[in-house]
């Protein structure tokens, strides 16, 4: 029997980026806010100081930075004809755990989705005709223009470095000419570029493309954000993705919000407690709070007026299923919405090898790079291409860590002395050009509950059924050709293409950009949450995170996740609290 | 708006609380309580009278002195373990004369040699403020002092030799701001508690006032900011910024000073902080320091390599740091202090910049005690102390080893 605790105004499930933003906003509103996090408290000087942060073996290879998948994981299969098996070791994606969530170990590539990305279904239908059979792409229900002020807040919270390409409708030289209109320039200048980016910039200009600096949450200079929190300048140590930053140089909840939030008397955080389910009243239309369990197995009922799911996309979707909120999607009938439109990201790349030029990629940063956006979204004419969407193409100098990264030319042996020789010759003289491809929703890619496997609490694991779609593969083939054209012009001795062919393999690392499952949309028949991320079924329940993306764009998701969070917080503060109830009438 | 809250409060008290010195009477007007709150901040009463993280002013914190540990009493108004039975006169006797309610002499770890400079009205305001805060029951632990120091009568001789009761007397040759600063520094602020060296009896060496001291294995630097003073290159603005924000272009506060800023100076008015700066800028140092010997070249070479691997990411390769983020080492008072205790200790234990209202981020340096040997720390400290214009000289591995050992306790 769960022990009932004193009620709070708001309970946040999980304590990463979205929870930190909401906690800051809703405590400003005077609400009593409690965040429940299943992992540990983590802060820079204790958990990832510069003396410990760049420990490749510990954080990445032994997976100490990520969610504990011996307690809870998911099962995976490529299609409905297979039997899904548990992912016992993270591979393709790396969900976080503990305070700060994956916001501790992200790279810091901070994008805004294109205006057309938010209206992907209507925009593409209008321009190219009906979507193909089985594709379940839809509009977000919110527009870029509505989100712009919220993107802007996140940029300033984090001290994003970059060069605007469009300020109030005016195209700016040196920025991304395809991006949506910004209300202001980036708060920080771009990162310091290296030899590789100069080659990429020259090559893309020769091809008539529009290179610009990648938007970076690694600090290009010391920065104090609007809350007074301080971020130090990046030292280009190259330990961003998969690591916490020891130098306070990467925007994270720890560096941008927690110093202020944690001192507020109306905010409380409970760590090492896992939420088992959202508790509903008899009508099933109102959340009364959550049930959570501590590490000793004691269960608690935490009553709250407002329940907000702020865990990672996978776990938010899982919690909705376990709480019996909405109907779980069934691809056989097309009925149900929870778990629908699971999407990912389709990555491919080319390595460039130089004969006598040092790229020194070990001196890098998660978001140190030059990009082109000419082949993203609908920035180019797709007529006759038989796919929609695209991706940005970039040359990032990051991740060249000694255990993880040893690019070798085409035809090199995979082991032995020939391999060692090639690694030695090429480690300091290679770079990479990558395409960050979108992922379009199809009826056969989805999440549901596994019929066999359970987690440490006896709850069914979530099952992922996913493979690259026809749209993905055609798009990736097209993007990889563009990557090849650029790579070939970067002045190297040779290149090596790393194409992305099916089937999807859940082991090699690709990106931690899992989306969908609790998708947003215009009405209860096509979505789990409305345009304010409010549950259609349970109006005092909100769901944050990339789970609300109806499909994934050709960008890293954090910027858009954060903008949607600020947007939802604004709606809660200015509409919901005045008149609690559905903010969109079904 | 030329009046400080202090002056406004004082006026109000005079008009509405003429009987403020009438023994037991409590004055709980808003203005009086606020005056007391501010006075408590200027004296940092909370620092010593609170175990960090526990109920404010409930005492029990152990103060390490060269003679043993002295525990602070509960100064909430709880009747049995706190000040609940104390009258205003009792309180005045303690603050002004160092005498407890039972007539016993108080240990000067309670800085009454400084508090004695406070006027009666100010002390009464503190009493009235303390009366408003939540009352907490907490017994004071027994002091851990050897005989005969545990005999309070022994303090009579100490007081006779070193204690001079009396309110602050204005210096008519100086400005009102200077006088306010002198009052705050020498009175409630009791800066000398840490920043003045002590004689064998633990009393301030009056002729070396504010010229730096060592306590609890920290070296508190000289804070004389006039000609030849250790803070000569700090402007008035630098001093004000440091006391308000915990950081300035020269350094960041940590350890004991961090607590002083957190609980005391960041809550003071800019006008009072400016007064402190004016007074300190008028304190001259005592002449040129003799030049230290340059360390051995082999040591410097090793120290430089260690520095580049372990320190330069934040403190930068030329030692200029990132002012207000990561402390500059070039020209740093802490680095150039003749006594290397602080700089060695920071490397051994790490340090945490104080989070303040201005700078909420507690930017921290990690500990290197597990990573660097005594020889390596000595080399890097010697390198830092003799580079980029610093001329504080070498330290030895033995010095590091001794401090490492001392910190184990």
Can you give keywords for this protein?
heterodimer; A: 586 residues; alpha/beta; FAD/NAD(P)-binding domain; eight-stranded mixed beta sheet; six-stranded antiparallel beta sheet; 12 helices; 22 strands; 21% helix; globular; B: 409 residues; mainly alpha; Cytochrome Bc1 Complex, Chain D, domain 2; 3 domains; two-stranded antiparallel sheet; two-stranded antiparallel ribbon; 18 helices; 6 strands; 40% helix; disordered N terminus; GMC_OxRdtase_N (chain A); GMC_OxRtase_C (chain A); flavoprotein (chain A); GMC family oxidoreductase (chain A)
Radius of gyration of chain B: 22 Å
Helix percent band of chain A: 10-25%
* Class inferred from helices and paired strands of chain A: alpha/beta
How far apart are the first and last residues' alpha carbons of chain A, in Å? 37 Å
Order of helices and strands of chain B: HHHEEHHHHHHEEHHHHHHHEEHH
- Give the quaternary arrangement of the chains: heterodimer
Largest sheet of chain A: 8 strands, mixed
CATH class category of chain A: Alpha Beta
Mean pLDDT across all amino acids of chain A: 97
Round the Cα radius of gyration of chain A to an integer and report it.
Answer: 23 Å
Cα-to-Cα separation, first versus last residue of chain B = 52 Å
Keywords (chain A): FAD, Flavoprotein, Oxidoreductase
Organism (chain A): Pseudorhizobium endolithicum
InterPro entries (chain A): FAD/NAD-bd_sf, GMC_OxRdtase_N, GMC_OxRtase_C
Domain Glucose-methanol-choline oxidoreductase N-terminal (chain A): 232-342
Descriptive overview:
The complex is a heterodimer of chains A (586) and B (409). With 586 residues, chain A is of the alpha/beta class. Chain A has one domain: FAD/NAD(P)-binding domain. Chain A contains twelve helices and 22 strands. In chain A, a hairpin with a 2-residue loop joins β6 and β7. The two termini of chain A are 37 Å apart. Chain B has 409 residues and is mostly helical. Chain B has 18 helices and six strands. Chain B has helices spanning 5-16, 30-43, 45-48, 88-97, 112-115, 120-130, 154-162, 176-186, 192-195, 236-245, 255-263, 270-281, 297-310, 312-315, 333-336, 341-349, 374-385, 397-407, and strands spanning 62-65, 68-71, 213-215, 218-220, 351-352, 364-365. In chain B, the strands form three sheets. A two-stranded antiparallel sheet of chain B has the order 1-2. Chain B has a two-stranded antiparallel sheet with strand order 3-4. A two-stranded antiparallel ribbon of chain B has the order 5-6. In chain B, α4 packs across α6 (120-130) and α17 crosses α18 (397-407). Chain B starts with a helix and ends with a helix. Chain B: Residues 31-134, 176-284, 298-388 form the Cytochrome c domain.
């Amino acid at each position: 029997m769960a022990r009932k605790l004193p009620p709070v105004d708001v309970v946040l499930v999980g304590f990463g980026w979205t929870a930190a933003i909401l906690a800051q906003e809703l405590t400003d509103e005077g609400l009593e806010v409690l965040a429940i996090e299943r992992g540990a408290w983590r802060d820079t000087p204790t958990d990832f100081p510069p003396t410990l942060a760049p420990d490749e073996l510990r954080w990445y290879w032994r997976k100490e930075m990520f969610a504990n998948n011996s307690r809870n994981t998911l099962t995976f299969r490529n299609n409905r004809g297979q039997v899904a098996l548990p992912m016992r070791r993270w591979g393709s994606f790396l969900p976080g755990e503990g305070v700060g969530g994956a916001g501790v170990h992200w790279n810091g590539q901070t994008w805004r989705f294109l205006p057309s990305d938010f209206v992907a279904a209507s925009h593409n239908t209008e321009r190219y005709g009906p979507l193909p059979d089985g594709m379940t792409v839809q509009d977000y229900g919110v527009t870029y223009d509505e989100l712009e002020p919220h993107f802007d807040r996140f940029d300033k919270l984090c001290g994003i470095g970059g060069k605007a390409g469009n300020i109030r409708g005016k195209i700016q030289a040196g920025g991304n000419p395809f991006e949506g209109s910004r209300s202001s320039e980036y708060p920080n200048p771009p990162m310091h570029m290296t030899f590789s980016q100069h080659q990429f910039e020259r090559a893309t200009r020769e091809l008539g493309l529009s290179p610009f600096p990648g938007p970076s949450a690694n600090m290009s200079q010391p920065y104090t954000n609007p809350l007074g929190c301080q971020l130090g300048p990046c030292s280009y140590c190259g330990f961003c993705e998969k690591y916490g930053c020891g130098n306070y140089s990467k925007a994270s909840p720890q560096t941008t919000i927690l110093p202020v939030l944690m001192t507020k008397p109306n905010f409380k955080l409970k760590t090492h407690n896992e939420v088992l389910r959202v508790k509903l009243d008899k009508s099933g239309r109102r959340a009364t709070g959550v049930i959570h369990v501590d590490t000793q197995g004691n269960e608690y009922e935490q009553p709250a007026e407002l329940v907000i799911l702020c865990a990672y996309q996978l776990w938010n979707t899982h919690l909705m299923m376990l709480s019996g909120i909405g109907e779980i999607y069934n691809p056989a009938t097309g009925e149900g919405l929870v778990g629908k439109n699971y999407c990912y990201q389709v990555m491919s790349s080319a390595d460039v090898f130089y004969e006598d030029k040092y790229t020194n990629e070990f001196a890098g940063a998660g978001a140190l790079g030059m990009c082109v956006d000419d082949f993203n979204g609908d920035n180019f004419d797709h007529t006759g291409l038989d796919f929609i969407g695209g991706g940005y193409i970039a040359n990032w100098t990051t991740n060249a860590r000694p255990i993880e990264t040893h690019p070798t030319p085409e035809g090199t042996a995979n082991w032995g002395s020939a391999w060692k020789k090639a690694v030695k010759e090429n480690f300091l003289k290679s770079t990479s050009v990558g395409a960050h491809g979108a992922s379009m929703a199809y009826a056969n890619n989805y999440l549901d509950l596994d019929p066999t496997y359970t987690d440490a609490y006896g709850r069914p694991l979530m099952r992922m059924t996913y493979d690259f779609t026809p749209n993905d593969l055609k798009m990736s083939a097209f993007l990889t050709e563009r990557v090849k054209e650029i790579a070939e012009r970067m002045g190297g001795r040779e290149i090596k293409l790393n194409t992305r062919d099916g089937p999807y393999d859940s082991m090699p690392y690709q990106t931690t950009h899992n989306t969908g499952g609790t998708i947003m949309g215009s009405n209860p028949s096509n979505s789990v949450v409305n345009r304010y991320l409010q549950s259609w079924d349970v109006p005092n329940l909100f769901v944050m995170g990339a789970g609300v993306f109806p499909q994934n764009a050709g960008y890293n998701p954090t910027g858009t996740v954060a903008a949607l969070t600020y947007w939802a917080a604004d709606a809660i503060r200015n509409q919901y609290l005045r008149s609690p109830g559905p903010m969109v009438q079904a | 708006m030329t009046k400080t809250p202090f002056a406004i409060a004082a006026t109000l008290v005079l008009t509405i609380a003429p009987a403020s010195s009438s023994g037991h009477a409590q004055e709980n007007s808003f203005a009086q309580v606020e005056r007391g709150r501010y006075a408590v901040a200027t004296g940092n009463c909370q620092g010593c009278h609170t175990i960090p993280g526990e109920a404010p002013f409930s005492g029990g914190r152990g103060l390490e002195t060269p003679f043993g540990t002295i525990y602070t009493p509960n100064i909430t108004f709880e009747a049995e373990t706190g000040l609940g039975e104390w009258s205003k006169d009792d309180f005045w006797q303690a603050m002004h004369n160092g005498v407890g309610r039972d007539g016993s002499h108080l240990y000067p770890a309670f800085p009454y040699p400084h508090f004695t400079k406070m006027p009666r009205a100010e002390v009464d305001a503190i009493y009235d403020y303390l009366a408003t805060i939540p009352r907490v029951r907490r017994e004071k632990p027994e002091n851990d002092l050897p005989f005969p120091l545990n005999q309070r009568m022994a303090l009579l001789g100490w007081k006779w030799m070193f204690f001079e009761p009396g309110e602050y007397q204005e210096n008519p040759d100086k400005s009102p701001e200077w006088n306010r600063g002198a009052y705050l520094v020498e009175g409630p602020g009791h800066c000398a508690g840490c920043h003045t060296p002590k004689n064998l009896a633990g009393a301030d060496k009056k002729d070396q006032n504010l010229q730096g001291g060592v306590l609890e294995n920290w070296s508190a630097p000289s804070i004389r900011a006039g000609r030849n003073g250790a803070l000569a290159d700090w402007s008035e603005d630098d001093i004000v910024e440091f006391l308000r924000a915990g950081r300035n272009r020269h350094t960041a506060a940590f350890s004991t000073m961090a607590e002083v800023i957190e609980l005391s100076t960041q809550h003071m008015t800019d006008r009072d902080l400016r007064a402190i700066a004016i007074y300190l800028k008028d304190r001259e140092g005592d002449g040129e320091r003799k030049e230290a010997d340059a360390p051995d070249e082999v040591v410097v070479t090793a120290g430089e390599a260690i520095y580049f691997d372990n320190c330069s990411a934040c403190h930068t390769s030329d030692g200029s740091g990132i002012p207000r983020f990561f402390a500059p080492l070039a020209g740093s008072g802490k680095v150039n202090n003749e006594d290397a205790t602080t700089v060695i200790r920071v490397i051994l234990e790490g340090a945490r910049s104080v989070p303040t209202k201005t700078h909420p981020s507690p930017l921290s340096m990690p500990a290197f005690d597990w990573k660097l040997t005594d020889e390596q720390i000595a080399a890097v400290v010697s390198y830092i102390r003799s580079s980029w214009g610093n001329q504080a000289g070498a330290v030895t591995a033995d010095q590091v080893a001794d401090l490492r050992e001392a910190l184990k306790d």
